User: Fold these one by one.
Assistant:
Number 1:
Amino acid sequence: MKNVIGNNLTLTLFGESHGKAIGGVLDGFPAGVRIDEELIEDMMSKRRAAGTISTGRQEADIPEFLSGIKNGVSEGTPIAFVIANKSQHSGDYNALAGIARPGHADYTGHVHYLGFEDARGGGHFSGRLTAVMVAAGALCMCMLKERGIAIGTHIASLHGICDRKWNEADLDQEITLLNSRRFAVLDETKEEVMVQEIEKARMDLDSVGGILETAVVHLPSGLGDPEFDSLESMIAHAMFSIPAVKGIQFGKGFDFAEMRGSEANDPFEMKDGKVTTVTNNNGGINGGITNGMPVLFSTVIKPTPSIARKQKTVSFTEGKNVEVEIHGRHDPAIIHRARVVQDAMRALVITDALVTRFGQIDWRKGQ
């Protein structure tokens, strides 16, 4: 029953959706990193619910740091923090006791925890715990910022509505643009269309999903390992810790199936005294290790499973077929909020890889 991720930098999660608080312990974080409170608040705000395209549950989500930070600088000791739960409507779940909500972990959680789980609002399986991921990832972003590494994610598509493609020749500006926006699209005209699609799903008592694309720039070559701790496997591990992520691809991903080797390979060249590649079909990773090019990957976010339509399911406590209508406060889409969670977990993986490669002291200057 593991709730820890990472190798030399680890994050431990704890808490439930309707408990007193959720929180985490970030262990292995280097000493001497200046903690940017504005950056942390910005990332936390991007995850918060807002308007009718998100859940009605409003939480401040202000991390309270209990240890590991002094005078705005990391100490090098474990950073423990909590985030209070103040807006629980636990009564919304009374009628759902013992009911397997379609698409949720009610049944599997009941089996795994022998019936002792806190099922309110999904308990420990709730997307509520992604607030902890964002807080931890924001701390890592402070460290990556010092190293000149930048991360950005956009909504590549939402229920068939597509954003424009990355301008790979200027990813720095693209990432800066995305990180300045609350709704993460590169083409600002797509925001209204996507929001309308989410609203339409809400009015239909339904939900929608989509695809998120992430870019990471200014990574040194040499991060990651072959085989079991390849950078792809570490990223995939982190991405699948995010509720609703059901698929991932790197670079051209599944498009490789339609290509020949002559099209798929990235030719190497020397440019300004550095080894680089002409194309970046492999998403900046060869043999599980960064090659110095931008790391590009995308994930599929499934439609939010909590919908108010009548659905067939079972009562696993009574052993019978039933129908369920899920009422309460739920998101008609979570992709616009999941974007910053993806950034955060990617930051955690990169920070872990930097510490693993260069150590607690030399992570700033490792090339």
Number 2:
Amino acid sequence: MTRVLICGAGSYIGTHIAAHLARFPQTYQVAELNVQKPFSAGDFAGWDVVVHVAGIAHQKETPENAPLYAQVNRDLALNAARLAKQQGVRQFLFFSSMSVYGLTHGHITAQTQPAPVTHYGQSKWQAEQALCALQSDGFQVAVLRPPMVYGQGCRGNYPRLAALACSLPFFPQVKNERSMLYIDTLCAFVRRLIESGRGGLFFPQNQAYVCTSDMAKQIALCHGKKLRLVPGFGWLVNLLARRVGMVDKLFGSLTYDRALSIDFADEPQMDFAATIRQTEVGA
């Protein structure tokens, strides 16, 4: 029996991981820890694995809230890891982000160096460095840098795109590629990572890149709509992308090199259209 503590009760990713592991009751015992109150003595005692998903994101960044990002995304994770190590936890999984690269478009390879430009990205990168310094033979630190995670009830850019796909009669046809990650695929990856007991840097993603226009069309189909994709708007999208960050995030190309995602690549994945159906209508 492997005892897994999800650090960050009620989080989108953490709740799904807990539910996924609960499907294997003979193998895993799972609980979630509320981190909105100070850690207590013994919070991590007796647990084999800590999955740290607590953090803040999807908030408007200002100069005034930079310390809050550091406090929650960096300091909280570091405090949890130190206590976990002291209390005998053997593996610590930390959820970082693609944002550590500071890119809204591009192709990320093993040679691409982190260069965060947001409070969120900077706090995650600082946390990564501090956590990796804690690694030892008896305490493995695994850092995950997922791309955009989507699934039923997700937050961020996906629901914005879904709203557009369901309300517009037509949609610009673009030829972009984006790395994305379906929530169930992520949960299966985490289970395999826990089974391995490994530390290191990991890049889970869907097996195929996603085109924004194709995704919008799939979303519309789930709701009985036939979304017309209109070519010839590439120039306008490119122009807006230079000026509007949200447009770049939706229509720009941003991918992880496939070679970064070879870990547990044998794990079966649901095809993309099916993941969209599950996300939109749960079937």
Number 3:
Amino acid sequence: MSIFGIDFGTTNSAAVKLAEHADPQYYGDEFGAPYPSIVAIDRATGEAVGGRKVWEGRERYIDSGQYHVIQSVKWKLGKEQVWATEQRTWTPQDVTSFIHKQLSDRALTLGLE
């Protein structure tokens, strides 16, 4: 039997797989660190990027004015804040879903079964 869980954090998020008689398998960013819970959404295309790339370039994303940069989305859950793009409107739940999807994709890429 194995269990998969996600630790959705304000600053970072991570996932772990626990299986009987095996070491825990941790899933975060491409460097093995927790996945930064930050997302940049292009105001024109509505495309989102997240994780370490956005964390390390957050000032550039913010200063460009081209992106909505959402940090600490966990604090925005349950509030009526939205981020409008030309393609769609993002809610805090949408941003949270994006972060979880990134973690899930990472786990699948690394062989989570």
Number 4:
Amino acid sequence: MKSSTLRRLFLLASLSLLLFTGACQQQPQQPAPGASQNQQQSRERVVGTSGGSLTYRMTSPPQTLNWLMAKEEYSITIAFYLLGGRLVEFDQDQQKHIPGLLESWKWAEDKRTLELTLRDGLKFSDGHPLTADDLLFTMRALYDERTQSPVYRDAMMVGGKQIETSVVDPLHLRMVFPETVASPEGYLSNIVVLPRHILEEDFNKGTLKDAWSITSEPQKIITSGPFIVEAVNPGERVKLKRNPNYWKKDSAGKQLPYLDSITIEVVSDANNAITRLQQNSLDIIDRIRPTDYASLRSSQGSVRAHDLGPGLNSDYIWFNLNEGTQNGKPIVDPVKRAWFSDVRFRRAVSHAIDRNSIAMTTVQGLATPFYGFISKGNRAWGATDIPGTEYDLEKARALLKEAGFTQGGSADAPELMDAKGNRVEFTMIVPVENQPR
């Protein structure tokens, strides 16, 4: 996502992780952890059979079914990806953006005006036509200050300015970007089209942010994506069923999705999740613990763990450089921000992180150290020539000394002090359910 906030974050010490578990029968023994990381797995697409259901595990319940208001992973997974129809999608196999609700998009001669063409015959889940007016409404809702979209509004700002959208006719729109951007697909893939005929009243009242809460009546949630809401038990599960009017078809012309339904179960305890997987009351769990992977890899039952090499996700540390204020107080302590803003301090921290030991010991060989912003699993954009930051405590000490830091305390309990005598300490916040972090 493009975001002025995200651009302020300094990323370092990244680990690319893929811990994927699938339930399948009679799978051959897998190679040792890490052995398949450089192998290209076969991803041949085949025509599927319609029907069936899956049960997928989440560690925490979603907070909303309104993608504009989603700000955590669980709400985004359901509201944005499973219920939402996006203008542009990302093909995981090809690792490139492909058309979604848009049939095409192209730059005008000025390289700031983007001409958009929607697919003909698009419909929402209630059968109502999806047209350019719905996309225009979505853009208005996204930018509206009353909506207060916590993630996507900022992600859709370009240089602090909005993208101006206008309708040409029911299938064609025009977007004018405030400045030239290298890849409009990064913005187009952030847009899920909302039904104007359902939500315009809420928008006009300024209550759109409260629409489609987790307790809303399922039949009132009209979607443009592959699934619709069938039932919700807040805090426990969300059941989705196939959208009968979804636009996408497979290579044989069969309407997608194949599945009749997906049930998303909230199972916060990792041990319980593994037990339920082995008992076949869960079909899929992902991001499992390294110890669980080792156990499942050698299992003789129907469940197998598969190491497909580096994934697109990454784990990283960032220092908060936000210079803003909240309730009249700095968001970040100015003393700490002074440390974090010094590139020598950040480099020292990077040199003090033993990536290889983390990858091989903590994550049991199921991680790939890297030193940029993009995972090595990204075949399209993953750079291979970025120099590594070696684990070197002497270099870390030298950089800190150069930046004016000194060692205080005692020999048995040393403490790092800044040039003004402040003790250096900060808190790292991580999700409790993420054991490797």
